[in-house]
Amino acid sequence: IYNKAKGMRVLEFRVADLRRLPLRNCSMLVQLYINKKCGEKYIFETHNLRLTKDHVFLLTPVMVTHVIDESSPLHGLTPALFQSMDLEIVAALEGSVQGTGLAGQYLWSYTQSEVLFEHKFVDVVHMRRCKWEIDYLKISETIPANFH
To answer: 11 with 49: CB under 8 angstroms?
Structure first.
């Protein structure tokens, strides 16, 4: 999701651990790949997107955020320009499986047409009958947001 949070443009992902054996010591990495045509040649650019937190504890779903400031390769892109580019965003989650210690890596890939603008994730964590509940069926659900 490409939207505004606290007055800043951000790129956000929601990450959750749905496994029976949870992951521990998790870290996130997000990379941006851009193909640009320059005359008869193509130029392939790779950028690491700086995250507000790159180590996550997945007890509950977590928002992973890249702030689109002057240092971001996404800075200055309008939704129309973003959608017209040949790009891919790859998010990687790495961690170790509790109980076995085996390493796990999970990848998600998004093209420019899969990035939603001016949307927000629906709330999935709720307090019911004095305990917290997580609605994992809505983990990827979004709704339009009015940030103006």
So the answer is: yes
Tens-digit pLDDT profile for residues 62-109 = 999 999 999 999 999 988 999 999 999 999 999 998 888 889 888 999
Q: Are strands 62-67 and 125-128 parallel, antiparallel or unpaired?
A: unpaired
Size of the chain in residues: 148
What is the separation, in whole angstroms, between the first and last Cα of the chain? 16
Q: What is the DSSP string of the chain?
A: -EEEETTEEEEEEEE----SS-EEEEEEEEEEEEEEEETTEEEEEEEEEP-S-SEE-TTS-EEEEEE-STTSTTTT--HHHHHHSEEEEEEEEEEEETTT--EEEEEEEEEGGGPPBSEEEPP-EEEETTEEEE-GGGTT-EEE----
pLDDT of 131-148, one tens digit each? 989 998 999 999 998 755
